[in-house]
């Protein structure tokens, strides 16, 4: 259920939300949590339609400004607070929200609505001038860097807001507006523009996300995790995103706001710290996580804030999982009856299985290995290469054919190109919900975080082996070995289910039937993903094929379109998954498009 303010903007009131394509994943999540009766700060959304209109014309679509003002008035009525005035000022967060989850790729502004007047009112209301000043500083920091594109260094605590604003103006030639509605218009525009930022474009390209979807903008009343000793913020996964264990996994940072956790600049505490201080809050959080998982039929990534002992939910979405966890959770959800076997098979991609079956460090290789650094294991797998400390260098050297490891103090969205190019990522700071950890898991990239100050200098320039499963970095290139599908209980189960569902059989080279397959290993065109379709369509009367790129996604699709009965590949699960996905997308002989 929503309240329309016009053509472009909707107030969120729970119930069945409009499609994600219109309001984005963030607002859709807010509406779903409201419908479950959870405590969610009031919010309205500027739709993706407004973003597309903005990107097409380069300016706000007609009527949007008035609709945003109406949305603000609606928030004021629901919160009993005033935007830009006391005695109870309303501050808001402005967040991007694409229909397809793109964690960390676009921009967020917190504490918007702060100026000298509202700082004074906030200080009087809560009785804590230091908190009000800190909130003002946080707003200026985010607004200047995201909206005004300032490169001014972090503000000194001893300075005043006027001095901070002067430093911003001196750096970028633009002043932070004191008019809170002007602040809001600038932030909405910045979120729209962030859709086409370099990091967002690279993320979409890597994950095959369409460029014309646009992002919604969610404007939500602020709650303050940095208010007092009984306040904080955190991230909870309903199941372990690294191992897949059916247990809650997360972190909590007292007296902090959400950006502190995901930035990687601070190392949070385990959830047990929240339980020790406020056990009733942790109990409510875990109960809600179970409800959200049941409603979403998937492991959930939940952002929450505690303000003076009151729990608030900011977002819940399907968790980005390491491949090992994705396999285990898919099988567990099917066995628990939340999804069926086909849905479980569709939860895992061929690339994730290939990562799981990629080589790992041999046990004997560790006997004489020299440990260089260790941290928190954030994404499993093994990466071997030369440690480099800059993303641009990582990309350049990888394009030259060199294996590289990206080592950074902490990563930000601006490091995405370096992460994609690297074999593994290591950071000095941050925890398991930092940018490096979340994006590393999404990419299936080995990742170790929180190695401590000095790790950069210790590793740079050396050939190292990064073990993302143990959180250790070793000198040199250690001996590795590749696992088998049968060694992994969840993969063995998914293989059985996929074989029953797949329209294309996949047999190993040792199977008797493999001898009947046409061997394409000497066919140069069969090694080209762009030409494999033509090769397979020309195999008259063949039942099966082997060699070339026939086991790739392009090869599997081409085999289905050519009407083959089977292909030969090892391991068999990745092409089985590719066949199920291709069939879902319509790749059958009856709908050939070649």
UniProtKB/TrEMBL annotation:
UniProt cross-references to InterPro entries, sorted A to Z: ATP_grasp_subdomain_1, PEP-util_enz_mobile_dom, Phosphohistidine_dom_sf, PPDK_AMP/ATP-bd, Pyruvate_phosphate_dikinase
Domain of life: Bacteria
Keyword tags: Kinase, Pyruvate, Transferase
Domain PEP-utilising enzyme mobile: 402-471
Pfam families documented for this protein: PEP-utilizers, PPDK_N
Gene Ontology MF terms in the entry: ATP binding; kinase activity; pyruvate, phosphate dikinase activity
Domain Pyruvate phosphate dikinase AMP/ATP-binding: 67-269
Name of the protein this chain belongs to: Pyruvate phosphate dikinase
Taxonomic placement: Bacteria, Pseudomonadati, Pseudomonadota, Alphaproteobacteria, Hyphomicrobiales
């Amino acid at each position: 259920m929503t309240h329309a303010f016009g053509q472009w903007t909707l107030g969120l009131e729970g119930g069945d939300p409009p499609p994600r394509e219109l309001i984005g994943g963030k607002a859709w999540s807010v509406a779903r949590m409201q419908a479950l009766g959870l405590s969610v700060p009031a919010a309205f959304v500027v739709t993706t339609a407004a973003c597309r209109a903005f990107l097409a014309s380069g300016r706000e679509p007609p009527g949007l400004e008035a609709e945003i003002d109406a949305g603000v008035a609606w928030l004021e009525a629901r919160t009993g607070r005033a935007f830009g005035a006391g005695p109870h000022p309303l501050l808001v967060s402005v967040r991007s929200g694409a229909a397809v989850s793109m964690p960390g790729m676009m921009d967020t502004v917190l504490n918007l609505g702060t100026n000298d007047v509202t700082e004074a009112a906030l200080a009087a209301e809560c009785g804590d001038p230091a908190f009000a000043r800190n909130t003002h500083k946080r707003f200026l920091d985010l607004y200047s860097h995201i909206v005004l594109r300032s490169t001014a260094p972090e503000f000194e605590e001893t300075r005043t807001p006027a001095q901070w604003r002067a430093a911003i103006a001196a750096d970028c030639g633009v002043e932070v507006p004191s008019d809170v509605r002007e602040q809001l218009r600038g932030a909405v525009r910045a979120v729209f523009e962030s859709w086409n930022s370099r990091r967002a474009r690279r993320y979409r390209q890597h994950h095959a996300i369409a460029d014309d979807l646009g992002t919604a903008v969610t404007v939500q009343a602020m709650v303050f995790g940095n208010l007092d000793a009984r306040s904080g913020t955190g991230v909870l996964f309903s199941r372990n995103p690294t191992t897949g264990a059916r247990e809650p996994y997360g972190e909590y940072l007292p007296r902090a706001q959400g950006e502190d956790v995901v930035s990687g600049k601070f190392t949070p505490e385990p959830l047990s710290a929240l339980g020790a201080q406020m056990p009733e809050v942790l109990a409510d959080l875990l109960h809600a996580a179970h409800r959200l998982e049941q409603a979403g039929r998937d492991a959930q990534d939940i952002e929450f804030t505690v303000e003076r002992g009151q729990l608030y939910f900011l977002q819940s979405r399907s968790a980005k999982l390491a491949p090992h966890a994705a396999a285990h959770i898919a099988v567990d959800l099917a066995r628990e009856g939340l999804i069926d076997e086909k849905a479980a098979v569709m939860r895992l991609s061929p690339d994730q299985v290939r990562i799981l079956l990629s080589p790992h460090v041999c046990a004997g290789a560790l006997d004489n290995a020299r440990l260089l650094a260790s941290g928190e294991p954030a994404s499993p797998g093994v990466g071997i290469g030369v440690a480099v400390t800059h993303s641009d260098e990582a990309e350049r050297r990888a394009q030259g054919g060199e294996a590289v490891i990206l080592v950074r103090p902490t990563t930000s969205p601006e490091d995405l190109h370096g992460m994609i190019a690297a074999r593994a990522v290591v950071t000095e700071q941050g925890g398991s919900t930092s940018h490096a950890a979340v994006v590393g898991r999404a990419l299936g990239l080995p990742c170790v975080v929180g190695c401590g100050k000095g790790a950069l200098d210790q590793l740079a320039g050396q050939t190292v082996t990064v073990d993302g499963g143990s959180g250790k970095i070793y000198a040199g290139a250690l001996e590795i070995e590749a696992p088998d599908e049968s060694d992994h209980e969840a993969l063995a189960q998914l293989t059985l289910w996929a074989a029953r569902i797949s329209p294309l059989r996949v047999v190993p080279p040792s199977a008797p039937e493999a001898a009947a397959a046409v061997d394409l290993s000497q066919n140069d065109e069969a090694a080209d993903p762009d030409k494999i379709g033509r090769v397979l369509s020309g195999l008259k009367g063949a039942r099966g094929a082997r060699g070339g790129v026939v086991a790739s996604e392009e090869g599997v699709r081409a085999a289905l379109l050519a009407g083959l009965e089977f292909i030969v590949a090892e391991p068999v699960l990745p092409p089985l998954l590719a066949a199920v996905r291709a069939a879902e997308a319509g790749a059958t002989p009856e709908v050939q498009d070649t």
